[in-house]
């Protein structure tokens, strides 16, 4: 993405689209394989991580997958993809989260490549972890506020 966008900046949007499509297709294939394989697909991951990811997906829905797409390595993104398949998470919501997260990531990389040229790799290596974590925190705060506002308050009258 960086090399192509630096070399041919006019094609950056196409490169971002193709990278997003390729990543989404790869995630779809892994999701479908995991859905078919069931719990066996999770054998590579610890029981604790499996439970934690299942909780996040069940509680936060597509936002959990979206956050996973934005966080930099070594965050276990593949565990979210496999878990979404095993736990039969909605394919539509899964793919929307993957596409939005990956598109953001690749468009950001392309923007930096066009704007900063060969220095883009160095800049992204230094700052993307903070950008990813900042976006993840923003999404988490949004989801928590949304859940808080959605819940009706129960008022109990005491005689």
Concise structural overview:
The chain is mainly α and 159 residues long. It is built from seven helices and no strands.
Describe the protein's architecture and organization.
- The structure is a single chain.
- This protein has one domain (2-150).
- It has 159 residues and is an all-alpha fold.
- It is 77% helix and 0% strand.
- The N and C termini lie far apart (67 Å).
- It has 7 helices and no strands.
Number of domains: 1
Class from secondary-structure proportions: mainly alpha
Q: How far apart lie the N and C ends?
A: 67 Å
Largest sheet at a glance?
none
| Mean pLDDT metric | 87
Q: Helix tally?
A: 7
Radius of gyration: 19 Å
**Element-level helix/strand string:** HHHHHHH
Q: Tell me, what's the shape?
A: globular
Unreliable stretches (pLDDT < 50, length at least 5) are none
Helix content: over 70%
Quantity of strands, as a count = 0
Strand-residue fraction?
under 5%
Summarize the topology.
Layout: H1 2-7, H2 12-37, H3 47-60, H4 62-70, H5 77-86, H6 91-116, H7 120-150
Helix pairs in contact: 2-5, 2-6, 3-4, 3-5, 4-5, 4-6, 4-7, 6-7
Describe the structure using short key phrases.
single chain, 159 residues, mainly alpha, 77% helix, 0% strand
